[in-house]
C-alpha cells in the first residue's frame, strides 16, 4: 500500500522535529549547561501509546506523537489543520489531585466563613434535679440556630425552644447570652430570638440566599451541633423539592426541601447552605422509620423564602396574620373510620367567617348528627385536613373561597366564605 500524502508530510515533519531537537541539545552541551535539557519531557512509553491509540483516532495519536517529538505548531498545521492542532496543544495536564484539593478548599471555606454565624441553643425549663426539692432551671434539650442580623436576632426551629422558661445561646467564642423569644410561627416551626447584652460587633449574620431556583441534584451543606458536638458539617444534595411535612401544630409545611445531608438530633434549627455558602433553608426534621432519632439519609429543611417572610413580618410588625375560616375540625381519623374522605366540621363559633354558612356537628336525642364535610376548596379535592390547610396557605385575608360540602344524607352544596384574619401578636 502506498503511503498517503498526509503520512509523508507527517513523517517529514517528525524527522525535522528530531533533527531540531538534536541541534538544540548539542548546542546546550557545548555551552556546558547541565540543566539545559530539563525542559524536555521524556516521551510516552510504548504501553501508554498503545492505550491512547486504542482510545482515540489515528490522527489524534499522530498529533500527540508529533507534539512529543518537538515539532513546531506551524509544521503540524498544514498536515492536520490548525484547529485540531490548537485543541491538542491546549489540552491540560491531568490534575486530579489539584482539582480535588480545590474542591476541598471550597468546602472548608464554606465551613470557615459560616461557623461564626451558627450558634448553639439550650432549652432551659424549671424543674428539680435529683432528689432535691428546690426548683431550678434544667437543660432539657439543645439545638442549633444562626444569626440573622447585627441587631441580635437569631433564627431557630420553634420545637427547639418550645416550653422553655429561659433560652441560652452560645456563640462560637463560647460566650453565652440569655435570649428572649421575639415571636414564632408554630405552624411553620420557626422561632425568632434576640440576644441580651451582646456586642453587635461580635455578631456575624449569615448570608441569606434564595430557595426559589433550587434544582434537584444541587450540592448542599448542613452545619449544626448534632448530639451536643460543637459545629459539625455534613454535605449532600437536594434530593427533592416541594415536599410536605407536618409541623408541631399538626399543620402541614409545604414546599420543604429534601436532602440526604445528615441532619441528626441537635441539627434542628441550623442552616442549610448552597455551594456559595448562602442560606437556602432551615433544617427541621428527618424521616426516621426506626423511631430512634437516627438519620437514614432523608432530611427536610424549611425553604428560606418561607422563612424570610415570617421573620420579616414578626420583626417589623410584632405579629403574624393568617387567613382562616373560623371553624373547628374533627380529627381526620373520625371520617376515616366511616370510610369517607374530606374534613368534618366539628364546631362553628359565633361571629367567625363561617358562622351561619357551615353546619357543625352536634348531639341530638337520637345520637350524633354529623356536620358539613368539606370535600373541595375552589374545585380542588380535599381528602384531609392537610389538603384544607394547604389551600388556605395559598390565600390571603379577604379572599373569598368556594367550598364544596357534603351535607345531611350526602347531598353536595357550594358555600362561599370570605376569609377572616387570625392575628397572633407578640409583646415587644
Automatic annotation (TrEMBL):
Q: Which domain of life is it from?
A: Eukaryota
Which keywords does this Swiss-Prot/TrEMBL entry list? Hydrolase, Protease, Serine protease
One BP annotation, GO: proteolysis
List GO molecular-function terms, semicolon-separated. serine-type endopeptidase activity
* Region spans: Disordered: 19-40
Is DNA-binding given among the entry's keywords? no
InterPro entries on file: Chloro_Bact_Ser_Proteases, DEGP1/8_PDZ_dom, PDZ, PDZ_sf, Peptidase_S1_PA, Peptidase_S1_PA_chymotrypsin, Peptidase_S1C
CDD domains per record? cpPDZ_AtDEGP1-like
For this chain, the family text in UniProt reads:
Belongs to the peptidase S1C family.
Q: What is this protein called?
A: Protease Do-like
Amino acid at each position: 500500500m502506498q503511503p498517503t500524502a498526509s503520512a509523508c508530510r507527517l513523517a517529514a515533519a517528525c524527522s525535522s522535529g528530531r533533527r531540531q531537537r538534536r541541534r538544540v541539545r548539542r548546542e546546550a552541551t557545548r555551552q556546558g549547561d547541565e540543566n539545559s535539557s530539563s525542559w524536555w519531557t521524556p516521551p510516552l512509553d510504548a504501553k501508554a501509546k498503545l492505550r491512547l491509540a486504542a482510545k482515540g483516532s489515528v490522527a489524534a495519536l499522530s498529533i500527540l506523537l508529533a507534539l512529543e517529538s518537538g515539532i513546531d505548531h506551524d509544521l503540524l498545521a498544514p498536515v492536520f489543520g490548525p484547529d485540531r492542532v490548537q485543541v491538542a496543544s491546549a489540552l491540560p495536564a491531568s490534575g486530579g489531585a489539584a482539582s480535588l484539593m480545590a474542591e476541598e478548599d471550597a468546602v472548608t471555606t464554606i465551613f470557615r466563613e459560616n461557623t461564626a454565624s451558627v450558634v448553639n441553643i439550650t432549652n432551659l425549663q424549671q424543674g428539680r434535679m435529683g432528689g432535691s426539692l428546690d426548683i431550678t432551671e434544667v437543660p432539657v434539650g439543645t439545638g442549633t440556630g444562626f444569626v440573622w442580623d447585627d441587631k441580635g436576632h437569631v433564627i431557630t426551629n420553634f420545637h427547639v425552644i418550645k416550653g422553655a422558661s429561659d433560652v441560652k445561646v452560645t456563640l462560637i467564642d463560647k460566650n453565652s447570652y440569655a435570649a428572649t423569644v421575639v415571636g414564632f410561627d408554630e405552624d411553620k416551626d420557626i422561632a425568632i430570638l434576640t440576644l441580651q447584652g451582646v456586642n453587635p460587633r461580635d455578631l456575624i449574620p449569615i448570608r441569606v440566599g434564595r430557595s426559589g431556583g433550587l434544582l434537584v441534584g444541587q450540592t448542599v451543606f448542613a452545619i449544626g451541633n448534632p448530639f451536643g458536638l460543637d459545629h459539625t458539617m455534613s454535605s449532600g444534595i437536594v434530593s427533592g423539592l416541594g415536599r410536605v411535612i407536618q409541623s408541631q401544630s399538626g399543620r402541614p409545611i409545604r414546599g420543604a426541601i429534601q436532602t440526604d445531608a445528615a441532619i441528626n438530633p441537635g441539627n434542628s434549627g441550623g442552616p442549610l447552605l448552597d455551594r456559595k455558602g448562602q442560606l437556602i433553608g432551615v433544617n427541621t426534621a428527618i424521616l426516621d422509620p426506626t423511631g430512634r432519632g437516627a438519620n437514614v439519609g432523608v432530611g427536610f429543611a424549611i425553604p428560606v423564602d418561607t422563612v424570610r417572610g415570617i421573620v420579616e413580618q414578626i420583626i417589623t410588625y410584632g405579629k403574624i396574620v393568617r387567613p382562616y375560616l373560623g371553624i373547628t375540625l374533627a380529627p381526620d381519623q373520625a371520617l376515616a373510620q366511616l370510610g369517607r374522605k374530606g374534613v368534618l366540621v366539628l364546631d362553628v363559633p359565633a361571629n367567625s367567617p363561617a358562622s351561619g354558612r357551615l353546619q357543625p356537628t352536634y348531639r341530638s336525642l337520637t345520637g350524633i348528627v354529623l356536620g358539613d364535610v368539606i370535600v373541595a376548596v375552589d374545585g380542588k379535592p380535599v381528602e384531609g385536613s392537610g389538603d384544607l390547610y394547604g389551600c388556605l396557605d395559598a390565600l390571603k385575608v379577604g379572599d373569598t373561597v368556594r367550598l364544596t360540602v357534603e351535607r345531611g344524607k350526602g347531598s353536595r352544596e357550594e358555600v362561599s366564605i370570605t376569609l377572616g384574619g387570625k392575628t397572633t401578636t407578640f409583646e415587644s
